[in-house]
Amino acid sequence: MRFSSARGLTLVELLVAMAILSVLAAAVLPVAEVTVRRTKEIELRRALREIRSAIDAYKEDYDKAVKDNTLPGGASLGDSGYPEDLETLVTGKDWGGPNKIKRKYLRRIPSDPFDEYGDGWGLRSYADDADSTVWGGEDVYDVYSQSGRTALDGTSYSTW
Questions:
Q1: Which one-letter DSSP state was computed for residue 148?
Q2: Tens-of-pLDDT digits for all 160 residues of the chain?
Q3: Strand pairing class (122-124; 142-144)
Q4: Are β-strands 93-94 and 102-103 bridged in parallel, bridged antiparallel, or unpaired?
Q5: 78 close to 86: Cβ distance less than 8 angstroms
C-alpha cells in the first residue's frame, strides 16, 4: 500500500511565515510614515514659495506702474503696493499702460498640506510684525502655515 505525501504547509511553517511578515511590516511602517510626512513638507515649502513669489511679482508690477505713472487711479500715499488678499493674485490686476489686460499671478491658491481644520493660510500685512499671528487686514505681505505641528527638523511649520 502506498501513502501519498501531503503537499502544503504545516501549521508551524505557516506561523513562522506570519511572524517573519509581521516583523517586516513593523519595520516598514515607521519609514512609510516619515516618507509621507517628508512629502507633505516638500509640498508645503513649494506652496509657500509659489505664493510668496506671486506676492513679490505683484509688488514689482505695482512699483513699475507707479514709476511709469500708468497705475489706474494713481497711487495713494498709504498704499503699500501689496495685494489686498490672496484672491487678487488669482483674479489678476490691470496695471494700465497700452495693454488693457489683467495680469494674473496664480492659477489657484495652493492649499496648506498640514491644514487640519480648514483655516487656510495665515496672513501678515506690511504693517504687521514679522512674527505676528494676527493679520492687520490692509494687504498681504507674507503667508505662513497655521499648523501647530513640528517638522522633521524640529522647527514649527508656522515659522517657515
A1: -
A2: 555 566 777 888 889 999 999 998 888 888 888 999 999 999 999 999 999 999 999 999 999 988 888 887 766 656 889 999 999 999 999 888 777 788 999 999 999 999 888 888 999 999 888 888 888 888 999 999 999 899 989 999 989 9
A3: antiparallel
A4: antiparallel
A5: no
Task: Output the nine-digit C-alpha cell for 27.
Answer: 519595520
Burial grade of 58 (CB within 10 A; 0-12, 13-18, 19 or more): buried
With 0-12 CB in 10 A as exposed, 13-18 as middle and 19+ as buried, what is 112? buried
105-112 — which CB contacts under 8 Å span 24+ positions? 105/54, 105/55, 105/57, 105/58, 106/50, 106/51, 106/54, 109/51, 110/46, 110/47, 110/50, 110/51, 111/47, 112/44, 112/47, 112/145, 112/146, 112/147
pTM of the model: 0.79
CA dihedral 12, 17, 18, 23 (to 10 degrees): 130
Integer CA distances (angstroms), 61 to 76, 84, 86, 141, 158, in order: 16, 14, 16, 15, 28
